[in-house]
Amino acid sequence: MGKRVALVLAGCGVFDGSEIHEASAALVHLSRGGAEVKIFAPNIEQRDVVNHLKGSPTEEKRNVLVESARLARGNIQDLAELKASDFDALIFPGGFGVAKNLCSWAVDGKNCTVNEHVSSTLQTFHSAKKPIGLCCISPVLAAKVFPGCEVTVGQDKNIDGRFPDAETASAIAELGCKHICKNVNESHVDKANKIVTTCAFMCKAPLHEIFDGIGTMVQEVLKLA
After folding, report:
1. Would you indicate the residue range of the signal peptide (predicted)?
2. What is the pLDDT of residues 82-139, one digit of tens each?
3. How far is CA 21 from CA 25, 118, 161, 172, 212, in A?
4. 10 Å Cβ neighbour count for 122?
5. Is residue 90 helix, strand or coil?
6. For the chain, how many structural domains are there in total?
7. How confident is the model at residue 1 (pLDDT cuts 50, 70, 90)?
8. Active site positions, annotated
């Protein structure tokens, strides 16, 4: 029997939703690992809608669950319906939608608030000692909800211009968590909290290296499940 994994999306598209390549990579690696996956997203309005061609906000209004359904090929449920007892593990791809829709990190940084259903889902899995995997910016969710945990968003310095958001590591440390520096093709396992993180597109790297890094995260999550 394959592990049962819940994957939570934040919309569709890197600038206002889930990062599509990260979501796809996680789903491919989960499939390869024999996991049974169900996809969820909160039924809320997006913080903003970005024209991905121009890179600028529009006046449109979109719903996170409806937009996430694009990535889920329509097979998706409201996050409010997720029951941790039905699953062995939980995974969050990244994308600015995590920092805009699942929490307010994009606006408030370390002082952000986390969506109530996202927070309760994280806490329920954690309390049940079930592993949680997060990539790209989504480790900030764990840093906010679980003070003292260990996560990675890559490096804490902008080495060779490859880690332009390295200051995120400092903000994580200010929340009382430990940031672990890792390369893009690696992940970090916080064994005490069963939290597995990888930096993905927080690093400017070839797509296959990001894909491989997400693969290590998925593998570690499935090992812990």
Report:
1. none
2. 999 999 999 999 999 999 999 999 999 999 999 999 999 999 999 999 999 999 999 9
3. 6, 22, 22, 25, 12
4. 24
5. strand
6. 1
7. confident
8. 136
What pLDDT score does 192 carry?
98
Do 121 and 82 touch, CB atoms closer than 8 A?
yes
The answer to whether the CB of 84 falls within 8 A of the CB of 47 is: no
Give the whole-angstrom CA distance, residue 99 versus residue 158.
20
Instruction: Note down the domain range covering 12.
Output: 4-224
Structure tokens at 136: 């790209």
Of the candidates 99, 139, 134, the one whose C-alpha atom is nearest the C-alpha of residue 26 is: 134
Residue among 172, 181, 182, 180 at smallest CA distance from 145 = 172
For residue 112, give both structure tokens: 């952000």
CATH of residue 36:
3.40.50.880
The Cβ-side half-sphere exposure at 50, using a 13 Å CA radius, reads: 19
Neighbours of 127 (CB within 10 A): 9
